[in-house]
Amino acid sequence: MPANYHKHPDPAMDSSNLDEDSDLEDIIEKPEVVWTITYPKKPISNSSQRIRKLWNDAQKHESNFHGKGQAKEALNLRYIVEPSASGPWLGMQNYSKCTIESVDYRKNDFVYVRPPGLELDGDDDERKFYVAQILEIRANDPCQVFALVAWMYWPDQLVNAHVGAEKPMSLRRWYHGKHELIASNHLDIEDVTSLAGLAPVAQWLEEYDDKVQEGLYWRQTFNALDGNLSALRKHCICKKYYNPDVILVACPNKECGIWMHEECIVNDALSKAYEALPADPETKKKKKKSVKRLSVNKLSEDLSYKDAGYRKRLTGKVVDGGNQIRIIDLVSKKISTEKLCCLKCNTALG
């Protein structure tokens, strides 16, 4: 994520309408302001008076975000804004909005933030920008206007993140979608001249199975203090997460209704076809000893099934609107078509 002391580009600014319905105009260039945010540790029984004072004097951040099964206050924290030569943060006037290049920015708006040094080349890829939620807007005058923001991480920006007790990992997970963000409690103060437009961000509650995601979305949170990622809803008999960019299939049996990864359905069909292949006694005996269907708790972490026994012999393609699979034997070149069935109740999908 961007540091809170970097130098921003200086785009033309029409006006800076700073709430209480007052308009601040006539922007005059002034020296860059430096802000630093620190997070004091919560005191324990034997903490020193200094630590207790830091905690008591710090500002409270009550996060707008909480993930699945997460307490509402899970991302709450306390923070201290170190003042620069321009005066302390809390000494600046608090405003409800500012207007930059005819765009109004308000508290709780999601915004694009221009990274330092970004050169636009006609490519409108939104992932070139940072994304954040505005928490406060403060100013001393029209040329010193700042926003306190909470960062929305692109999955590629994660560092040492983990769900529960899993091993910390950095960057994107296999289940993160192309337009997915992760909400966080990582705070910074940004010069409002770095704001590059409103961002269409919505929370996705996975419990609503039929809701189609449009624009940017978040469903997971990241605690910047301890690296913890909130859990997600688990699907299918494999009990793994869901990448919204790939297909999730619902069982047509209303009494079952399970949602399944298409990869898991294909793996099941190819595994059964592989087990049914004819073989001479010696080969069959060897195959029974060395090749096993992958059990649920040994599935590939990313649903690729790269270790499946059929990989060198069979390949398949889903056809008929997802109801059947065309299986190709890579050795004999024979092609067969099989019905796809629910992995839980064995109901045909079509």
Q: Flag low-confidence runs.
A: 2-17, 19-28, 291-300
Strand content is 25-35%
Mean pLDDT level: 86
Main sheet overview: 8 strands, mixed
- Kindly name the structural category: mainly beta
- For the record, the count of structural domains works out to 2
Number of strands: 22
Please, what is the CATH homologous superfamily of the largest domain? Answer: Bromo adjacent homology (BAH) domain
The 3D shape can be described as elongated
Oligomer: single chain
- Give the termini separation: 47 Å
* Rg over CA atoms: 27 Å
CATH C-level label of the largest domain:
Mainly Beta
Supply the CATH architecture of the largest domain.
Answer: Roll
- Helix tally equals 3
Structure description:
The chain has 350 residues and is mostly beta strands. It has two domains: 16-229, Bromo adjacent homology (BAH) domain (SH3 type barrels, Roll), CATH 2.30.30.490; 235-350, no CATH class. The chain has helices spanning 49-57, 262-275, 281-290; strands spanning 16-18, 22-24, 36-38, 59-61, 77-82, 93-95, 97-100, 103-106, 110-113, 130-141, 144-153, 162-163, 180-191, 195-198, 201-203, 216-222, 228-229, 248-250, 259-261, 314-319, 324-329, 335-339. The strands form seven sheets. Strands 6, 9, 10, 11, 13, 14, 15 and 16 form an eight-stranded mixed sheet that branches. The chain has a three-stranded antiparallel sheet with strand order 3-5-4, with helices on one face. Strand 1 (16-18) and strand 2 (22-24) form a beta hairpin. The radius of gyration is 27 Å and the shape is elongated.
